[in-house]
Amino acid sequence: MTKLQSHECEAFEAVDRAPEAQAEGFATVRQAHESEMAEDYVELIAELIDSCGEARPVDIAERLGVKPPTVTKNISRLKTAGLVRREPYRAIFLTGAGQELAEACRRRHRIVVAFLLSLGIDGETAERDAEGIEHHVSEATLEAFQQALQQSRSDL
């Protein structure tokens, strides 16, 4: 018996979608992947500023597990996008747009983590999974998560 045969699985039911709808779904995922770097960086920069008073490239590299040149390259992209500002040999600061993006990312992250915890997922796994989910979740799904959380709280 193969591994696949040893596990009971429900049959996968394909959803019949129009090619345009399917293409739109894939385009949405590609767009989310493109914005992940910016979202991760501004969220981390905001967190570092809140906890340490500044966001230094060396701290960003350490927290993201990347090399300092990678941080330098990505900070340049964020600066071009108008999300951060940096003075030579100084820490990195968020612009107004960067701060707004960081707050939106934090909000999505908190909602996703709370929802996963409500399902009984342990804290470490919920945090790790939220890092991926938060970039791809739609506002409609976030709203559904929030409603489910509110409902579960009112049931107590």
Q: Strand order across the biggest sheet?
A: 1-2
Care to count the β-strands?
A: 2
Number of alpha- plus pi-helical segments: 7
Name the helicity range: 55-70%
Secondary structure topology:
Elements: H1 3-6, H2 19-52, H3 57-64, H4 68-80, E1 84-86, E2 92-94, H5 96-118, H6 123-133, H7 139-154
Antiparallel strand pairs: 1-2
Helix pairs in contact: 2-5, 3-4, 5-6, 5-7
Task: Tell me what the structure shows.
The chain is mainly alpha-helical and 156 residues long. It contains 7 helices and 2 strands, in the order ααααββααα. The protein has helices at residues 3-6, 19-52, 57-64, 68-80, 96-118, 123-133, 139-154; strands at 84-86, 92-94. It has a two-stranded antiparallel sheet. Helix 3 packs across helix 4 (68-80) and helix 5 packs across helix 7 (139-154). The chain is globular, with a radius of gyration of 19 Å. 18% of the residues are buried.
Key structural traits:
7 helices, single chain, 2 strands, disordered N terminus, mainly alpha, two-stranded antiparallel ribbon, 156 residues
Short structural summary:
Helix content is 70%, strand content 4%. With 156 residues, it is mainly alpha-helical.
